[in-house]
Design brief:
Low-confidence stretches of chain A: 1-25
Shape of chain A: globular
Largest sheet of chain A: none
Low-confidence stretches of chain B: none
Strand order of the largest sheet of chain B: 2-1-3-4
Distance between the termini of chain B: 45 Å
Mean pLDDT of chain B: 92
Shape of chain B: globular
Number of helices of chain B: 14
Radius of gyration of chain B: 19 Å
Strand content of chain B: 5-15%
Structural class of chain A: mainly alpha
Largest sheet of chain B: 4 strands, parallel
Strand content of chain A: under 5%
Number of strands of chain A: 0
Order of helices and strands of chain B: EHEHEHEHHEHEHEHHEHHHHH
Mean pLDDT of chain A: 85
Order of helices and strands of chain A: HHHHHHHHH
Helix content of chain A: 40-55%
Structural class of chain B: alpha/beta
Oligomer: heterodimer
Distance between the termini of chain A: 27 Å
Chain lengths: 169, 290
């Protein structure tokens, strides 16, 4: 039941513009951190520790689903461009494509010689690319306006009124 | 019992069963999971749905994600149980990767496959009815480093008399099928892989671990001589617990509205049913090779 604590250092202790600005004005109870601080802290962690060797890219089973990542794209250059996304500088078409086809297979994690959670690095970049950290959105998430409505409707079909009330309230 | 995690040591100890959101499409999976947990000495308090959403779908809106994660962490903490048993791998991963980094969790958490595996010696006496089928395991790679479900589930099901589970073949990417849905062709490839594995193994069943895989694969039954079953269903069969896989019935019906029935549709409202439910039930089934 261990809760992994790999990169979970206080955001204030980590360098990085996104982290420094995101937490301004926030007042949270002890132990709570703004999510932008968390994501900014993760970005800083990966920028500081990833060597851009590209082994994570090479291990990715999803690159074949992005035409721009077909033959001839080398891993280190894609990861280098992914770092640019993490810095809020925007990414290359290849780096954006890679982050968009990531399905969190996790195969990149054991491939990393620095033992970084490369899957989380790509996800952190995708959050930036979505504009989640306040910058320009370079990727558009798949929108499903009925997502929550559908969950509620199926629950009403499947559960008894008592189950719905006791479990979902 | 081989080794039971410290927080789960006491039989009959209360635990929160955080089943997630989308598994509410499969009410029987929730009910059967509750019963399985009871049989291994845990008294679960089930919670889920939108009020306990992890926020993992809100990566483009961190304000929403933060609020949902914090709300859920707080509510799970306030439930008072020191342990939370999870069902959904997305919720587990969001809790571990995101929510735990910005919130204080006053509980430990464990995926239900690990809970059942740890306590499988308590489960075994209940697995009395033979389930004489041969199945292939539908596998993904993405959750393995958190909880090795591709090993744990076969080891649990090895206790079911007569059940033959083949675990060969490659793992599909992602942590479950819903994670593939945003990449064109990836979901169809995963379904094709499972069908091919089943055909090659001479199996009559594809066994799913997670709910979204079950949701997306049940349609294979319309086009192939194969049965799609969740691992919880198999355990329930062996235990003699009655259940109906309504979602599969609805999804594979030529007339989903009739299969659901007017009485249930009235609970949602006809307009809402046709807007949010029917399109999913009518979605082309049988992904994979014809």
């Amino acid at each position: 039941l261990a809760i992994h604590d790999m990169e979970n250092q206080p955001a204030q202790a980590q360098a990085g513009q996104s982290t420094a600005t995101a937490s301004m004005g926030s007042k949270l109870p002890e132990g709570q951190r703004p999510l932008r601080d968390v994501v900014g802290g993760l970005a800083n962690h990966f920028l500081s520790n990833c060597t851009q060797c590209g082994k994570c890219y090479d291990a990715c089973p999803m690159t074949r689903y992005a035409p721009v990542l077909a033959e001839g794209v080398d891993g280190p250059s894609v990861v280098q461009a992914l770092h640019a996304i993490l810095r809020g500088e925007g990414g290359s078409p290849e780096a954006l494509a890679w982050s968009s086809v990531c399905t969190r297979s996790g195969l990149c994690v054991p491939a990393c010689p620095e033992k970084l959670d490369a899957s989380l690095m790509v996800r952190t970049a995708r959050i930036h690319a979505y504009g989640g950290m306040g910058g320009k959105a370079e990727l558009t998430p798949k929108a499903d306006p009925q997502y929550f409505t559908r969950i509620r409707a199926f629950a009403q079909l499947q559960l008894t009124a008592q189950e719905y009330e006791e479990w979902m309230s | 019992v081989d080794v039971v995690s410290e927080a789960f040591r006491l039989p009959g100890e209360a635990a929160t069963f955080w089943f997630g959101c989308n598994v509410a499409r499969h009410g029987e999976l929730i009910r059967l999971s509750i019963e399985l947990l009871r049989r291994v000495g845990i008294e679960p308090a089930p919670v889920g749905g939108l009020n306990y959403c992890c926020g993992s779908t809100k990566d483009a809106n961190l304000t929403a994600s933060e609020g949902m994660g914090r709300r859920t962490a707080t509510r799970l903490s306030l439930k008072g149980s020191r342990q939370v048993v999870t069902w959904c791998p997305s919720c587990y991963m969001q809790l571990e990767d995101v929510i735990s980094r910005g919130n204080v969790l006053e509980f430990d958490y464990q995926h239900i496959a690990e809970t059942l595996h740890e306590r499988r010696a308590l489960l075994q006496p209940h697995l009395v009815n033979p389930v004489r089928r041969k199945a292939v395991l539908h596998k993904h790679s993405g959750f393995e480093r958190r909880t090795p479900v591709n090993r744990l589930v076969p080891e649990i099901l090895s206790l079911v008399p007569g059940y033959e589970l083949v675990s060969t073949g490659a793992e599909s990417p992602g942590h479950m099928c819903s994670g593939l849905a945003h990449v064109p062709q990836a979901l169809a490839d995963a379904a094709s892989r499972s069908w091919s594995d089943a055909e090659a193994a001479g199996a009559d069943e594809i066994l799913t671990i997670f709910h979204t895989c079950h949701r997306d694969l049940v349609g294979l039954e319309r086009r192939h001589p194969i049965r799609v079953t969740n691992f919880v269903h198999v355990l329930a069969e062996s235990m003699g617990l009655p259940f109906e896989d309504d979602y599969k019935t609805w999804r594979n019906s030529v007339d989903p509205s009739a299969a659901v029935g007017e009485q249930r549709i009235r609970l949602v409202g006809r307009e809402e049913f046709e807007r949010s439910v029917l399109p999913e039930l009518k979605r082309p089934n049988g992904i994979g090779p014809a």
